[in-house]
User: Which sequence fits this backbone?
């Protein structure tokens, strides 16, 4: 009898183990025990032990996956699996669309899924909507951060794994002391986006069907939300040049960025959000700004303005 009741059996290989951080200690000789290297929990260091380093290893086989620094932290595999299970339960992705794998004995892991065509979709915390494959990548050998991405690359080997990580659009979390808290925030934002997209799908569809003057509509949005400073003001020529650079960036996204829909209200929204989520501000603070900061507020204002124009 098959007793496997998991929602996604394809992820059972990740469910079976967790990454655990252990210390490498040089322990002095005691009695009949010779001196030598031992693995121990970081807080199990005894008097006389010398800390040589730390590694991440598999909890099931104890196979070492990579040597790490003292501030290195991991997110449990169970939390990553749970994200995809919940998305299946909410019918955002279908179970048969989920794929996963490991490389290097588990030093690199990945999960990919294509969002269901009739779902509201997935928006990552930086505001990017998944258009291809929702991809989670993590490693325990220092080669990558923990990433949730939109990737057009189908992972089948280590080369495509590296390409998906390098070229994917999304959020990357360094393995620092607060990585678990940040991943929880990412998961909450993803689930909130699914709920919001499901509610707003009809509005977005209406925006796609609503045409605007190709150049006039873009200029109206730029003048309202991304205006040029007064040339005679005291902001200086640099401020004027920076503002023009922003407007040029949005104009490019309107025509050529992924998901571009020029000539529609939805296309104007896509152009603005592409700039705000991929180019505006500093890369280090863009995630937070897109989730709760100024970029998020401006995105909402642009959306409300475009919707109001349809009424």
Assistant:
């Amino acid at each position: 009898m098959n007793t496997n009741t998991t929602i996604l059996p394809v992820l059972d290989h990740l469910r079976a183990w967790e990454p655990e951080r252990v210390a490498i200690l040089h322990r002095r000789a005691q009695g009949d025990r010779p001196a030598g290297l031992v693995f121990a929990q970081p807080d199990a260091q005894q008097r006389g032990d010398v800390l040589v380093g730390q590694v991440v290893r598999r909890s099931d086989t104890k196979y070492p996956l990579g040597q790490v620094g003292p501030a290195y932290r991991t997110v449990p595999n169970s939390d990553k699996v749970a994200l995809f299970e919940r998305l299946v339960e909410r019918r955002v992705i279908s179970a048969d669309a989920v794929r996963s794998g490991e490389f290097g004995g588990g030093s690199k892991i990945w999960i990919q899924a294509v969002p269901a065509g009739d779902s509201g979709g997935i928006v990552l915390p930086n505001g990017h909507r998944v258009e291809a494959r929702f991809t989670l990548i993590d490693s325990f050998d220092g080669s990558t951060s923990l990433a949730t991405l939109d990737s057009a690359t189908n992972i089948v080997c280590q080369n495509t794994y590296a390409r998906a990580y390098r070229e994917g659009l999304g959020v990357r979390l360094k393995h620092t002391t607060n990585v678990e808290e940040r991943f929880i925030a990412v998961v909450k934002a993803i689930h909130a986006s699914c709920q919001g997209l499901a509610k707003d799908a009809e509005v977005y569809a209406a925006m796609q069907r609503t045409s605007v003057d190709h150049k006039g509509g873009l200029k109206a949005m730029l003048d309202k939300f991304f205006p040029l400073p007064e040339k005679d003001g005291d902001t200086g020529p640099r401020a004027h040049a920076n503002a023009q650079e922003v407007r040029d960036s949005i104009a490019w996204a309107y025509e050529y960025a992924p998901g571009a829909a020029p000539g529609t209200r939805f296309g104007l929204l896509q152009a603005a959000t592409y700039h705000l989520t991929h180019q505006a501000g500093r890369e280090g603070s863009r995630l937070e700004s897109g989730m709760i900061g100024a970029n998020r507020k401006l995105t909402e204002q642009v959306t409300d303005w475009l919707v109001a124009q349809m009424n």
Q: What stands out?
A: Strands lie at 19-27, 36-40, 50-58, 64-68, 93-103, 108-115, 133-139, 146-151, 169-173.
